[in-house]
Automatic annotation (TrEMBL):
<keyword id="KW-0479">Metal-binding</keyword>
<keyword id="KW-0472">Membrane</keyword>
<dbReference type="Pfam" id="PF00034">
    <property type="entry name" value="Cytochrom_C"/>
</dbReference>
<dbReference type="GO" id="GO:0046872">
    <property type="term" value="F:metal ion binding"/>
</dbReference>
<feature type="transmembrane region" description="Helical">
    <location>
        <begin position="12"/>
        <end position="31"/>
    </location>
</feature>
<keyword id="KW-0349">Heme</keyword>
<dbReference type="InterPro" id="IPR051459">
    <property type="entry name" value="Cytochrome_c-type_DH"/>
</dbReference>
<feature type="domain" description="Cytochrome c">
    <location>
        <begin position="48"/>
        <end position="145"/>
    </location>
</feature>
<feature type="compositionally biased region" description="Low complexity">
    <location>
        <begin position="156"/>
        <end position="167"/>
    </location>
</feature>
<feature type="region of interest" description="Disordered">
    <location>
        <begin position="146"/>
        <end position="167"/>
    </location>
</feature>
<dbReference type="InterPro" id="IPR036909">
    <property type="entry name" value="Cyt_c-like_dom_sf"/>
</dbReference>
<keyword id="KW-0408">Iron</keyword>
<dbReference type="InterPro" id="IPR009056">
    <property type="entry name" value="Cyt_c-like_dom"/>
</dbReference>
<protein>
    <recommendedName>
        <fullName>Cytochrome c domain-containing protein</fullName>
    </recommendedName>
</protein>
<dbReference type="GO" id="GO:0009055">
    <property type="term" value="F:electron transfer activity"/>
</dbReference>
<keyword id="KW-0812">Transmembrane</keyword>
<dbReference type="GO" id="GO:0020037">
    <property type="term" value="F:heme binding"/>
</dbReference>
Length: 167
């Protein structure tokens, strides 16, 4: 065999080895990521997802809603300027009375996105968080509720039916 053919063969073998290693790395990395299911809805059964949500909550939400999810002092009375303090997110508040999509929309777009007419909310939009981060926060909050409270939370479908009845 000529030297040129040997060099081409060695280059081809090297390229194939690099491709094989890249495939192995891809397979390993994709098997350690959270499943798509847990990234597009709340999942209180996914401990890793709940832990991620707890961390995000502590760094982004606790300053208003409290490290213990008890909300701001004075809730549910409006402040002198008419704006409501941050609501509790534990079972004493009303978050469990809202479906997951409502919670998601409120976090992503701010309190005014879901507020009733005349309700002044200081809740800012967290559009800088990824959708998966928001679902993780919702998963964490819901994981702190007792099972009977989780079971009492409306589904998106039941909330939609309730809203339609009000119209």
């Amino acid at each position: 065999m000529s030297r040129r053919l040997l060099n081409q063969r060695n280059v081809l073998i090297g390229f194939m080895i690099v491709c094989l290693l890249a495939l192995v790395v891809f397979i390993i990395r994709s098997s350690t990521r959270p499943t798509t299911r847990s990234m597009d809805r709340a999942d209180v059964t996914n401990a890793e997802f709940v832990a991620q949500g707890k961390h995000i909550y502590a760094t982004r939400c606790a300053s208003c809603h409290g490290s213990n999810l008890k909300g701001e002092q004075g809730w549910p009375q409006p402040r002198p300027n008419g704006v409501m303090p941050a609501a509790p997110l534990d079972q004493s508040g009303h978050a469990w009375q809202r479906d997951d999509q409502w919670l998601f929309t409120t976090i992503k777009y701010g309190g005014q996105a879901t507020a009733s007419p005349g309700y002044a909310s200081a809740m800012p939009a967290f559009s800088g968080l990824t959708d998966a981060d928001i679902w993780a926060v919702i998963s964490y909050v819901k994981s702190t509720w007792p099972k009977h409270t989780q079971d009492s939370q409306p589904t998106s479908k039941s909330s939609l039916l309730l809203r339609q009845k009000k119209l």
